[in-house]
Amino acid sequence: MAARPWRVPGWPRRLRHQLLALLVVSTVLAMALLFRVSASRLDDVAVDTAQRWAQSIALGAAAAATPALEAGDAAELESLLRSFAGMPGVERLEVVDAGGVQLLSLRQSAEGLVGRETPSATPARGVPALAGRTGFVGEGAVQVWAPAGPGGRLGSFGLTYSLDAERSRLGALSYEAVLAIALVSLMTIVATYWFIQRALAPLQRLVQFSAELGRNAGAQIQPHGGSREFRELADALNETSTRLRDQMEAIGRAESRNEAILQAVPDVILGLDAAGRVRVVNPGVSSIFGLQPEEALGRPVSDLLPGLSCEDAERRTLAGLYMRSSGTYVARFEIEASRRGGTPFPAEVSLSRTETTDGLRYAAVVRDMTEQRMTFSMLNLYSRALECTTNGVIICDMSLPGFPIFYANPAFGRITGYASDESIGRGCGFLQGEDREQPQLAELKQAIEQGKSTQVVLRNYRKDGTLFFNELTVSPVPNAEGAPQHYVGVLNDVTERERARMAIAERSARLNAVFDLSPDGFVVFDAGDEAEGGQLVYCNPAFLAMSGWDAASAEAGIGVDEFDRRFLKQCDPATPYAPVSLALAAGDRTDGPDLLQLVRPERRVLARMARRAGPGHHETILFFRDITRETEVDRMKSEFLTTAAHELRTPMVSVFGFTELLLRRPVSEERRRDMLETIHRQASLLINMVNELLDLARIEARQGKDLKREPCRLDSLVTQAVGPMLIEGAAHELQIDVAHPDCVLDVDPEKTNRALTNVLSNAVKYSPEGGSILVTTQSGELRGEPAVGVRVTDHGIGMSPEQLARIFERFYRADPSGSIPGTGLGMSLVKEIVELQGGRVDIASTPGRGTTVTLWLPLARDSQRPARHAGATGAVQ
Q1: DSSP label at 781?
Q2: What confidence score (pLDDT) does residue 2 get?
Q3: d(CA 581, CA 588)
Q4: C-alpha span between 112 and 720 (Å, rounded)
Q5: 270-300: string of b/e by CB count within 10 Å (b at 16+)?
Q6: Mean of pLDDT values over 813-828
Q7: Distances in Å between the alpha carbon of 22 and those of 15, 29, 129, 487, 581?
Q8: What is the edge-to-edge ordering of all strands in the sheet holding 344-356?
Q9: Which are the contacts of 680, defined by CB distance < 8 A and separation ≥ 6?
Q10: In whole angstroms, what is the distance from residue 350 CA to residue 269 CA?
Q11: Range with the lowest mean pLDDT among 3-12, 455-464, 522-531?
């Protein structure tokens, strides 16, 4: 118990009153001490002042009366001394001679009168041996002596001076000073009390604020005015208020949390006394036992736990675990508990025994085991299901390096050939063997790193080394923090399915390759809506090349109607276009494919067929074949037959007619010879035409296999071809400029000579007005290889662009009048000979101005590249 503080009786309790009392007491004590010290000092000052004043009077009297004394004039001496004896404070003035015998003595009465005393014949008492000494006469007077004459040879003047006057004057002064100090002290006390009261006024607010902190924790006070200490105290109180509020809130939260925990704990917490009766219970008793907490209080524990009595509780706890730190015995056991109405249920009890100052106490935690046992039964069922499933199931621990397997069901062993004891503790990677370069493994690794589920198909190997395809599905099992703690993997042997899939994929790849390489076009529309006819889902490159469509427009998913509209815009308006729907409706009843005449992007003739992929509503497949060449060949064949028949018939008619005339009519020898020459000329023309047709057919059939290629100099080839044309006096002038005579060509000299001869012959025939024919050579390239071109330029009738486009057609002649001889096969033969030798024919012509034909032929591989010079260069792509 704390000792009570000692108090002075009558001492004020408030701080301002205590400060005021302390100030008053200290001021009074200070004034008393000051008065005592000043009184002592003033007395000393009065004595000293009186001595100095008496000394001055005595010296003055001695100075004034020494002449009279020396003269022996007693009357003058007395007269002079009376003026000094009557001065204030002087009590007595006497004169003694050098022997100390009193000569004159004057005394001032109380009324201020100076009277003469009878001199004493004996030496004066107290006369110093030397003049100038002072002394006291009693306590109220001081006596001083002044010499008379040099060295006091005439005697001395003695003066007795009273101290009362000086003491009275200084006493009055001291009294006034004390009054002044008392007044100042009083004013100081008043001012100090006012300042203290003002300075301590905020303290009252702090006191009131502190008194209310218990009710208003967290409140803040604003320090208006006051000293720095007050502001610091206010800040400290504010901080204390904040801490108090935080502590009270923390205490409130802790209480709420504890209350919430007690309310939320699903188990029943029972506090039992030594008799085994319930004294404390939480709300969990309502959900487990069906009793309200107030109903359970006071009941014997045997009503709730029929198999537990006081003796049984004592026995179980003492036989249980002893907690040395708390001195508590703890026992855990299972028992059959009883709900309201007597319904039994399995329960787990944790019972503790504690010795307290109030006696023996028990605490019991009762947990309902009904759901746990049901869960355990379900786990047994699930475990049995995992053991019976045909899919392999493994569980990996993600917290250990390598993610080892710690569970594998029997199906895993049947699929992989590894028993459970051979798999547990190993990572799943052992099933891949050396086959680690599988893209699915990267996908699986990424999913595991991200904690996600995934499904992949892996190539795995059984214990005996045989390959099987494993459809692996993995899913994470998170821990309390949400991180994957385990991964469950389900294995499914999909070897047969994968083999079938790969076979289908291989067959699809073959079909895709066939479609991509096929020159025929294929278009596929999906089943879609029966009214709309489906959407375009596939078209091969051949169709894009035929139609001129780009892949982006084809992949836009157009319908059948849009497909028909696009194709209709590309077809020749003069020929009818059958929509796809009509082609599908006709089916196999049509006599053949539909013919489509395209005019854009170029003229083509397409054969189209449309079929369903199967009976009913299935995909639509369109087949397109470009028969432009076949159609053109048929047209050319017809034209060829017609033209060949006409060309062959004309000389045959001449031969037949002239022969018949010779046989039936006699003619003159001259006429006969003329007719025979005509027959010979027509027969020669017929033979040449047949030979050219045979040569052209043989060249086309053999595809250059009958060519006899050998190195030939360019100048000799040109000379052999031009030589027969150099006829003196002819209307045509041949100009030859072989700029590359040393170039060696790898060609068939005979057939190359025939090609050059045909070109030169055409230049001569189609320049009926004569003129110059220029033969030059050019250097250039053919497909990146060095080449030489032989250029023949005439100034004949020339050709229009339409005629130039048909120049290589058989039996086509630029002169339809027939006045220029020829078969129309020469340029076809030239083109075949040059192209079979790896060359190319270029023709440029202007009507009325002439034609230029260039035969580009490749150089032999060991021949040097011909030097280029201005006016003799060219290039062929």
Answers
A1: E
A2: 44
A3: 14
A4: 192
A5: bebbeebbbeebbebbbebbebeeeebeebe
A6: 70
A7: 10, 11, 59, 86, 125
A8: 278-281, 268-272, 359-368, 344-356, 328-338, 321-323
A9: none
A10: 10
A11: 3-12
Specify burial of residue 311 (Cβ count, 10 A radius: 0-12, 13-18, 19+): exposed
φ/ψ of residue 532, rounded to 5: -90, -20
Beta-carbon-side half-sphere exposure of residue 368 (alpha carbons within 13 Å): 20
pLDDT tens track for 157-167: 888 888 777 77
- Beta-strand runs (E) in 738-849: 744-747, 771-782, 785-793, 840-846
Q: Is residue 455 within 8 Å of 470, Cβ to Cβ?
A: no
Buried b / exposed e over 548-579, threshold 16 CB at 10 Å, is ebeeeebeeebbbeebbeebeebbeeeeebbb
pLDDT greater at residue 583 or residue 645: 583
Concatenated DSSP letters of 678-694: HHHHHHHHHHHHHHHHH
Contact 824, 757 (CB under 8 A): no
Query: What does the DSSP assignment read for 583-594?
Result: HHHHGGGSSSPE
Q: Count of residues for the chain? A: 877
Residue 545 has pLDDT above 50, yes or no: yes
Supply the pTM of this predicted model: 0.39
Pairing status of strand 732-737 against strand 771-782: parallel
In one-letter notation, the amino acid at residue 123 is: P
User: How large a percentage of the chain has pLDDT more than 90?
Assistant: 10
**Residue 428 CA: distances (Å) to CA of 411, 474, 714:** 15, 12, 77
| Token duo for residue 693 | 């047709």
Whether the link from the prior residue into 601 is cis, omega within 30° of 0, is: yes
CA–CA separation, 179 vs 175, rounded Å?
Answer: 6
Q: According to the model, what pLDDT value does residue 583 have?
A: 80
Q: Tell me the two tokens of residue 400.
A: 């250990």
Token pair belonging to 439:
């893209």
- The Cβ-side half-sphere exposure at 111, using a 13 Å CA radius, reads 2
CA dist 381 to 345, 404, 408, 412, 826, Å?
A: 22, 25, 16, 19, 96
Q: Coil, strand or helix: which one is 296?
A: helix
Within 665-723, strands assigned E span 710-713
- pLDDT tens-digit series, residues 260-295: 776 777 788 888 998 889 988 888 888 888 888 888
Mean pLDDT of 81-94: 82
Q: Which of 72, 78, 112, 110 is nearest to 94 (CA)?
A: 78
124: pLDDT strictly greater than 60: no
Neighbours of 522 (CB within 10 A): 19
Q: For the chain, what is the total number of helices (H) and then of strands (E)? A: 23, 29
CA angle 617, 622, 627 (to 5 degrees): 160
> What is the three-class DSSP state of 574?
coil
Taking residues 6-32, report their average pLDDT.
Answer: 72
Angle at 217 between CA 215 and CA 221, to 5 degrees: 105
Which among 332, 334, 296 has a CA at the least distance from the CA of 316? 332
Residue 73 has pLDDT above 80, yes or no: yes
